[in-house]
Amino acid sequence: MNVAEHAARLRAEIERHNVAYFAHDAPTIPDADYDALVAELRELERLHPELRTEDSVTQTVGAPVATTFREVRHAEPMLSLDNVFDVEELRAWGERAAKGLELDPATLVFAVEPKIDGLALSILYVGGSLVQAATRGDGRVGEDVTENVRTIRNVPAELPGVARGRVEVRGEVFLAKQDFLDLNARQRQLGEKEFANPRNAAAGSLRQKDPSVTASRALSFLVYQLVEVDGASPFTSYVDTIAQLAEWGFLTAAETTVEVGVEAMITRTDWFEEHRHELRYQIDGVVIKIDDLAQRGRLGFTSRAPRWAIARKLPPEERTTRLLAIEVSIGRTGRATPYAVLEPVVVAGSTVSMATLHNQDQVALKDVRPGDLVIVRKAGDVIPEVVSAVVEPGTRRGAKWKFPSKCPDCGGPLERVGEESDTYCVNPACPAQQLQQVIHFASREALDIEGLGEQRVAQLLGERLVADVADLFALSVEDLSSLEGFGELSAKSLVDAIQGAKSMPLSRLLVGLGIRHVGPVAARALASAFRTYGALEGASLEELEAVEGVGPVIARSVYHYFHEDESRERMARLAAAGLSLEEPSSTAGVEPTLAGRAVVVTGVVEGFSRDEAEAAIVERGGTSPGSVSKKTYCVVVGEAPGAAKVSRARDLGVPMVAAEQFGTLLETGSWNATLA
Predict the structure, then answer these.
(1) Most exposed among 48, 113, 266, 379, judged by the fewest C-beta atoms under 10 Å?
(2) What gap in Å lies between CA 385 and CA 153, rounded to an integer?
(3) Mapping DSSP to helix (H, G, I), strand (E, B) and coil, where does residue 82 land?
(4) Does residue 605 fall inside a structural domain?
(5) In a domain, 422, yes or no
């Protein structure tokens, strides 16, 4: 294939993806793979200028509008943004902009804001009244979605006190992360298809022929531009226009800052990369703009993008790769989890070669098969997952994967429990379950036994020194010192660590036992309510359900665990080994200032790690759940807080306490100041 043919093939493929993304809200590949195709074509056109055409996808924006809605011609073109992918490219852009303005890069003023992963929209107001709303389309002609936009709650129908003729606001329609989760939960309840991501869900919701369907989806609109259709703008800076839009009632990005100098601007974009998962909306990058509007005019535009703005794309959280095989792993509760074995691919900055497929139903629903090209997603510290298969025209797919009927580790039967979607190995002697149970028992959030990692646990099981967590406390220095990798000192160190775990409170033991549905929050609630294992074991189902933060599902799981013969035997052995089996009422000298109160901590609190902050609350009789509810006493807001928790607290009227007041809260149970 010659260069011209290769360029033509790339253009056709990119155009096909453009139509899928912009016109049908059904992208066929992740953004990062699309960006790679465009970059390859752009490089070809740079090396061979004779191949570049005016209608090349590198010179145009978006895609032609669909025929579902009436066409709308934009008063001013809705252009795209050029992208950079690393700090050096961003620095080079900033220095070029400064050179074009004949300024020192250290003095240039930038506005830095999140790049929302949504659907671009323009809204026209005449005499202060909303008269028209349109999608970007191909940048010059968009789709009329006026009636649907009128249903979006944070889009003002009237602009107060506006005397000018026609003004246009531009921004992004999106679904907040929590609203997206709620929408998919509703789709599941109705037995309807779930949305792949917030962007697709928002775009599909906005393009409904029936506005009532759009109204039923919790869409939001975030504005980032004011266009003066009639006359010159009275503003001199971008941040002034955003302030005006906020006064008119529009949602603006609270994270937007003004930075002086290229290096300060770069530092702020780094902040967004570090905290992207704490924002209430999904972002795929950071937008950097020259703040001075006159300077923007001097820099001007290319055919498709302004020279005064750039988008720094963040490391992609979705990529395509080949699915080599589907295997099944067995967890500590016996749950059989299918996972994908992949051709290694870099996602969100790390190499991924395995990804979860969740359960039997998810594999069937996604219909992914060995040999498929698949989309893999990894967001922050979340376990990588396979999202879907990618259609490859002309390629014959392999046979559908079938869930095994026998455990891959012990050969015992795999069974589904009740109406749950999960499948379990029901053999309690399964070596895979034993391995994971002991690993979990020794983990940091449970009994925190230093030196007892996965390899060491596997060795102890393989040598038949341990078959159950209670066996750990019978290990001696003599048992260990003869094993490979152990000397007398290392053996003594591990035995001492195990013996030291005997004094752990009941709540940590409950976590370590691996009772289904019982995590740290529920364990602390149960231990605080009953104080001793004997009282907890003797509690009725009704008494367990009555504990705040427990509920029927956890209560049933705990009740059944305590009444199983195997559990009773294990607890008798742990008691005989000298474990505490009690929850201290409070740490010596610490007053229960937060007794019965739920305090949520979000962000960084100086002087405390996350675990230390939660422990300090628990020591004073409180609980520290991971989410905000009507029963939350207050939310402690530190540096870089989770936007969803802050927003939820505001919506519910829960008091928010500045991190500086955390010490006062712990000491007195109250505080001196709240956050607005």
Answers:
(1) 48
(2) 33
(3) coil
(4) yes
(5) no
